[in-house]
Specification:
The chain has a single domain, classed as Non-ribosomal Peptide Synthetase Peptidyl Carrier Protein, Chain A. It contains four helices and two strands. The protein has a two-stranded antiparallel ribbon with strand order 1-2. Helix 2 runs antiparallel to helix 3. The protein is rod-shaped and about 105 Å long.
Length: 133
């Protein structure tokens, strides 16, 4: 079990995952501010003349807990799509291309055996034939 864990750690996937988490967390702050400052006002402007934007008041007018905020859900979905796209195009696509290049470099055609190896193989086969006869 420990050997399998060590191979998993050494394979590099853990490092890739850690980098993705750190960059995703750092980038999420930027995207969140972009969504709050740019996307939310655009979504709210389509919601109507009120200040609250897209949403429905389910209960008492003054109770914020009963307000169904659809604009926040749309903003969160846009936030997720932006972060996912950036992580995919900045991290995943280059890593996949790098792995393809590594695989191409590691796969080599087997070299033809050297002349002395061919000669020794022939001698071995002749000795086997003599011993069997």
């Amino acid at each position: 079990m420990i050997k399998g864990f060590r191979e998993f750690i050494m394979r590099g996937n853990v490092v890739d995952l850690a980098v993705a988490v750190v960059i995703g967390a750092a980038f999420s702050g930027i995207v969140t501010k972009f969504v709050e400052s740019v996307i939310n006002p655009i979504v709210a402007s389509f919601g109507g003349g009120g200040e609250i934007g897209w949403g429905v008041q389910l209960g008492d007018e003054g109770n914020e807990a009963t307000f169904l905020n659809l604009g926040a859900v749309i903003s969160a979905a846009i936030n997720f799509v932006i972060i996912a796209a950036v992580v995919y195009f900045i991290l995943v696509v280059p890593m996949n291309k790098l792995q393809e290049r590594r695989k191409k470099g590691l796969v080599e055609e087997p070299a033809a055996p050297a002349e002395d190896v061919i000669l020794l193989t022939e001698i071995r086969d002749l000795l086997r034939a003599q011993n069997n006869a």
